[in-house]
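Weekly puzzle thread! Below is a chain. First person to post its structure in token form gets bragging rights.
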Amino acid sequence: MLDLKEQTVFADYFLICEAENDRQLRALAFSIIEDAKQNGKTVADGREGEAKSGWVLVDFGDLIVHIFSPEKRHFYDLDELWNEAHVVLHMQ
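Winning reply:
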């Protein structure tokens, strides 16, 4: 999770995730949206992309969740693009 408050005005945080295959990517996106609705009492502002494309974006306004296939994550390399952002949480 990256804290972008000092770098941009369109979001405060990016959560960058990786899924091993289309099915896992689709399930992760669904789970994030449902969990936010059930436990966070919030609804996503939008969802972009398809699992088969290797990148799904879930927009919660101040938090944008990026779910990538390994190949797309390496290609777009958001971690490096936003390398000046403070890393709030890093898990493997």
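Puzzle host: Confirmed. Bonus trivia for everyone else. The chain has one domain: 2-87.
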